[in-house]
Design goal:
Blueprint (H helix, E strand, L loop, with lengths): L1 H37 L2 E6 L4 E3 L3 E10 L4 E9 L4 E3 L5 E5 L2 E10 L4 E2 L2 E8 L5 E6 L3 E5 L7 E6 L1 E11 L4 E11 L13 E10 L2 E11 L4 E8 L4 E8 L21 H22 L2 H17 L5 E4 L4 E3 L8 E4 L4 E9 L2 E5 L5 E5 L7
Helix pairs in contact: 2-3
Length: 370
């Protein structure tokens, strides 16, 4: 009998443990189910580059999925990045149902790169709740180029020169101005060691494409402007050659870097006046309309040449711009107040000749009041 009670007690104890274990499994299952239901946002990096070059512009794409249909928008926060700079706050948003693909443009600025941690937030339509998820960034192999001296510091998928002009700058130098278009390029870093002066006058971005207008003051001994850029597709340096052919016409419709001076104004005025006098004498003698025209037309020419030259006073410290643009490159500064001939005006700028014969544009606000 004693043995029977021992067996019965063991049996009851086993049943109690089994029920407790089953209850624990059910509780764990419910907890896991609740966790799965609570996770309503999934994200990951999409096609990150395996290696990058210093200076390169690259894309960082986040692939996201929200299981909540009441989302209104997505926002992103970047943190713990290293060796890279965000090029533009704007993102490219693409929907390939059910995924979102948001692409940002970064530029490599350091020797070591770590892509950032990205926290994605989903703002719901009723603004009652925000869902967030963070993915951790990691390091990417970074390569530093070892180029030759004619490297222009640009890395690009494509680089194309659109237009170019060369003007005489002074007795020893020419100035070359050209515009170019590039894809996935760091045009803002463009620089040439052959230029004694250089600058970027216009730089516009509509990523992945960008374009600029660049000028370089170079020696008159150069017959061509030659440089190389790094092609990101072929991983090779590509040559760009711009022939230097000095032109007397305008560089653009906005600028005339070396306008022709009217050095024979007095002689032209005297010839026109003499022709007008002959026409007047013939008209008085013969009274024909043809002679009257010979008399009157040169008078208009004389009147035009007789208009006095306009002079302007330029304030000390004024900046001389290559082009009449608000954000145009400044290549000279007025060291002291002086008076010079006005060579033209356009949209808040006046074209002048410096005392060293350099031609440029100053803002009208820099013209002295007296």
């Amino acid at each position: 009998m004693h043995f029977f009670f021992i067996v019965l007690f063991s049996f009851l104890l086993g049943i109690s443990d089994a029920l407790a274990h089953e209850g624990h499994n059910e509780s764990f299952s419910l907890q896991t189910s609740e966790q799965i239901q609570e996770k309503q946002l999934y994200q990951s990096f999409y096609k990150l580059p395996e290696k990058l070059f210093k200076g390169q512009v690259f894309t960082l794409t986040i692939k996201a999925l929200s299981t909540n249909a009441d989302y209104e928008s997505l926002s992103y926060d970047f943190s713990n990045a290293e060796g890279i700079t965000l090029v533009s706050e704007e993102k490219e948003h693409t929907l390939v149902s059910p995924y979102f693909y948001d692409t940002f443009y970064f530029q490599v600025t350091g020797n070591r790169v770590r892509v950032p941690d990205v926290t994605t937030s989903v703002i719901l339509k009723n603004h009652s709740e925000t869902l967030s998820e963070t993915i951790r960034g990691h390091r990417i192999e970074t390569i530093r180029l070892n180029p030759e001296d004619d490297f222009c510091q640009v890395l690009a998928d494509e680089f194309k020169v659109l237009e170019y002009k060369t003007k005489q700058y002074d007795n020893q130098h020419n100035i070359v101005v050209f515009s170019a278009e590039a894809k996935m390029a760091n045009l803002n870093n463009f620089s040439l060691h052959t230029a004694s002066k250089e600058g970027i006058d216009e730089h516009a971005e509509n990523l992945p494409y960008s374009n600029f207008t660049y000028y370089a003051v170079v020696s008159k001994q150069l017959n061509e402007l030659k440089f190389v850029y790094f092609d990101l597709n072929t991983h090779r340096f590509q040559d760009v050659i711009i022939p230097i052919i000095v032109s007397n016409d305008k560089v653009t419709t906005q600028t005339d870097l070396a306008p022709t001076q009217n050095t024979h104004t007095l002689q032209k005025t005297m010839v026109a006046a003499a022709l007008s006098a002959v026409g007047l004498a013939l008209f008085i003698h013969r009274r024909k309309k043809l002679y009257f025209l010979i008399f009157i037309i040169p008078l208009f020419f004389v009147a035009r040449l007789s208009i006095p030259t306009e002079y302007v006073c330029i304030s000390e410290g004024s900046n001389l711009h290559l082009l009449p643009l608000q954000n145009g490159t400044i290549f000279e500064q007025v060291s002291k107040r002086f008076t010079t001939e006005s060579l033209g005006e356009t949209e808040g700028f006046t074209k002048i000749r410096m005392q060293n014969n350099q031609i440029g544009w100053v803002k009208n606000e820099n013209i002295c009041s007296n």
